[in-house]
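[agent] plan:
  1. take the single chain provided in the ticket
  2. run structure prediction with default settings
  3. attach structure tokens to the ticket
  4. add a short note for the reviewer (M.T.)
[agent] executing step 1
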Amino acid sequence: MKYRNYLCALFILSTPAISGVNFDTPEGSLKLYGDVEFNVDGASRTGQLTSLKTSSGKDWKAGDSERWDVNGRILIGLDGYRTAANNKFAGFSVQPLADLSGSMNLDDVAFFFGQQNDWKVKIGRYEAYDMFPLNQDTYIEYSGNTANDLYDDGYGYIYMMKEGRGRSSGGAIQLSKTSGPFYFEVNTTARDGTKLFQDSDYHGNSLENKKNVIYARPVIAVTMGDVTTAIAMESNVVNNAYGYTGSDGKFVDQSKRNGYGATLTWNGQKSNPTGGMIVNLSTAYMDATDEKDFSAGINGLWHDFELGYIYAKNDVKAFNINNIDVNNTNDFILGKYDINTIHASYRIRNVMEMNNFNIYLGTYWSRISADEYHDHDDKYRYGARVRFKYHF
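[agent] step 2 finished; step 3 output follows
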């Protein structure tokens, strides 16, 4: 389903499975669990927020119609865990998914081992430390939030320190260490770097993969009472990993990507589980080939209501228009642009008096501003979602 590359329904701080079946074996404990997550979505036409029309047809634009959709998946999870002397442990997690498109996929699949409250090694497919948390179920339509196809020419990119976070088309290895209030983590992922871009296109050029990228993503977090602060960076450490061949026959490297981020969280629910507030403040910056991206966001969750704001300011310094079929360059939106987004959600708890059945109502409104923006009737995006969440 192509639209999934252009939008994201983020489910941050989702409630863990509150039920399940536990089994004890001589080799450790097993837990079988799952959840249902079905969505009913409505959104304004996707359009193209930031760069170009991809056809010479006079009236045609990508996503020219409004979108109504029913989508979702069922997850079945199996976790294994075993402890040994001196608080040593090992375990695994596997979470196959069946979605409404008829496909079978995987959420997490990982093996880990270490020593409790000390160190840990994790290998597989998973997501590392979240450097841009959005609180509870958040529905926003733009590029920048899925594990693969994060970036798409023609759509607004909101950089959120996710390029090296994991759960992508390649595997990952993570080393972490806890020492008092400090938490240290280094996550590394290896994969085909062109999978970051929808259809392997970047700035109007079709990318060629020469060798796999390796992202290194170190994180340092400190927790003092209800407050946690974290700083991180992520960088592809392989030069000339992917790019394109120029008109002179020379290979042009496009694989430079260095990201930096910081986040601060005040979790009042630690001391007041029923009436406390959770507030997140995050910022991120990407220094990439011919592009600079900055984003900042703030959001708060009180009881079951969440409200947030995200600001993005990006600068695309170069774009190859020769490979694009358009009427004229006035169809392009290049250079600097801003995106302002407001998002909100509300959780309806214990539907039908079942403590494992919740409904989430999510909505967003987004506006783009750019000097080269010529379609003044196409500056806004908005949408709404009803999510049914059932744990078992």
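[agent] step 4 note for reviewer: The chain has no helices and 24 strands.
[agent] ticket updated
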